[in-house]
Design a protein that fits this description.
Layout: H1 2-23, H2 34-45, E1 52-57, E2 73-80, H3 83-91, E3 97-101, E4 113-119, H4 128-136, E5 139-150, H5 154-161, E6 165-173, E7 179-186, H6 190-193
Parallel strand pairs: 1-2, 1-4, 2-3, 4-5
Antiparallel strand pairs: 5-7, 6-7
This protein binds S-adenosylmethionine.
Length: about 200
């Protein structure tokens, strides 16, 4: 009970902090990171599914949606802790897109997806592998996780590789100091992996 209260308070404070940062435009620079979004779209296009259903966790103000022209997607659901970011995303009226304010750690999807994207968000979360195991249940058979990690984060890529199949790993460099590791992982069904899913 006490632990839950502490945890909820921590994430309430984080929500306020993200909202504040969005309100003063601190994250507006993400719009300039076109190489990162383009590479993610490249990986999406390489997936064999038709009429893709995509879940973008920690979607911010929907920057990725601007790059989806030419992608064969049925719809994309963006989820973010920040109501400021989500209001901004909704104002853009992106096609086939829906946005929800929620904490990734609490959010329960109502359906399954072909691709789940963690674009610059996984390392902000507690107990990352537990979160991935939970979300893997909301992937269609043979579905994919896509990750973008600022600074590549070989440690995280290695940890994820121990449970899921690394299919592609790209390093995107914007400058000497700014670069990302962008990866595509195939997720076998839990039965095939014989791993716990919670
Ligand atoms: C660095 S930004 C990346 C935004 C977006 N993916 C992009 O690349 O344009 C990280 C985002 O994760 C969101 N975030 C952080 N913790 C979250 C959580 N627990 N649940 C949902 N969103 C979260 C923040 O509000 C923020 O919008």
């Amino acid at each position: 009970m006490k632990l839950n209260f502490k945890r909820n308070l921590k994430w309430f404070k984080k929500k306020i902090s993200w909202n504040y940062k969005y309100s003063i435009g601190k994250w507006d620079f993400m719009d300039e990171e076109n190489l990162r979004y383009s590479k993610i779209v490249d990986l999406i296009k390489g997936c064999e599914f038709k009429n893709l259903k995509i879940l973008d966790l920690g979607c911010g103000y929907g920057s990725l949606n601007k790059y989806l022209k030419g992608v064969n997607y049925e719809f994309i659901l963006g989820v973010d802790l920040s109501s400021n970011a989500i209001s901004r995303a909704k104002k853009e009226s992106f096609i086939n897109s829906k946005f929800i304010v929620s904490d990734i750690q609490q959010f329960t999807p109502e359906e399954k997806f072909d691709i789940i994207i963690f674009n610059e968000v996984l390392y902000y979360l507690d107990d990352q592998m537990k979160i991935l195991r939970r979300y893997s249940k909301y992937l269609n058979d043979g579905g994919y996780f896509i990750f973008s990690f600022y600074g590549i984060r070989e440690d995280l890529i290695q940890e994820i590789s121990e449970e899921y199949q690394l299919k592609r790993k790209e390093v995107v460099k914007q400058s000497e100091k700014v670069f990302w590791g962008i990866t595509l992982f195939k997720v076998d069904s839990p039965a095939l992996r014989s791993l716990p899913t919670s």
